[in-house]
């Protein structure tokens, strides 16, 4: 029997559109809720999503191109597409699960900088040991918190930090952000000093200041640690981040 490419291409197109709609629904949750800008860039959420969706868009429609045949019975086609659908949903579900584990859950002020904490950084036991308001990971944008480690626990926290679990990943040390404003202001630097030490980033900083909606004299900055790299957070007079710039201030 001759291959009817028109039918196969139609099946490919329909399957591609259906997959793209499903991917768009996932993207709405992932980037609208879990990875608000610029955390998608900080953590690499966009690249990870592209990989997941790219595989799914290739997996289903290309298989459709191969398996679709009007000569098959309805039962055979239903069986074929049921298997393909299960594989696609499983692949997409796994990808969404990976992204859920990678989502930012806290922006924690710790000592002299911000730490972006991902869901996978927080152990279940540490989560359970935290105060009631911090025993569940946020499902929306990352929560702004501060870290206050009692002197008696500092050696233990330092030891755990070497294993990648610093105080900023342990909710039992979280305190309301506003309670640490004194320390935040103490460590925050001026924009002028940052521009002086990084003259090559003047254009980047000017754009960030403009996007913040505040004049330079009302802004300060703090470093932001995320996945072994550093960004810069511009903070307002209340010590809260109003803009993040892709600049290593060190």
Question: How do the strands and helices of this protein lay out in sequence?
Answer:
Elements: H1 5-34, H2 39-43, H3 45-67, H4 74-102, E1 104-110, E2 113-118, H5 124-128, E3 143-147, H6 154-162, E4 174-176, H7 181-187, E5 189-190, H8 191-197, H9 202-212, E6 220-226, E7 229-235, E8 241-245
Parallel strand pairs: 1-3, 2-6
Antiparallel strand pairs: 1-2, 3-4, 5-6, 6-7, 7-8
Helix pairs in contact: 1-3, 1-4, 3-4
Can you count the helices? 9
Number of strands: 8
Order of helices and strands: HHHHEEHEHEHEHHEEE
Give the N-to-C terminal Cα separation: 68 Å
Instruction: Estimate the strand proportion.
Output: 15-25%
Largest sheet: 8 strands, mixed
Can you tell me the number of structural domains? 2
Oligomer: single chain
Give the integer mean of the pLDDT values: 87
Low-confidence stretches: none
Morphology: elongated
Helix content: 40-55%
Instruction: Please identify the structural class as seen in this structure.
Output: alpha+beta
Cα gyration radius (Å) = 24 Å
Q: How would you sum up this structure, described in words?
A:
- By secondary structure, the protein is α+β, with helices and mostly antiparallel strands.
- The chain folds into two domains: 98 residues, no CATH class; 142 residues, no CATH class.
- Strands 1, 2, 3, 4, 5, 6, 7 and 8 form an eight-stranded mixed beta sheet that branches.
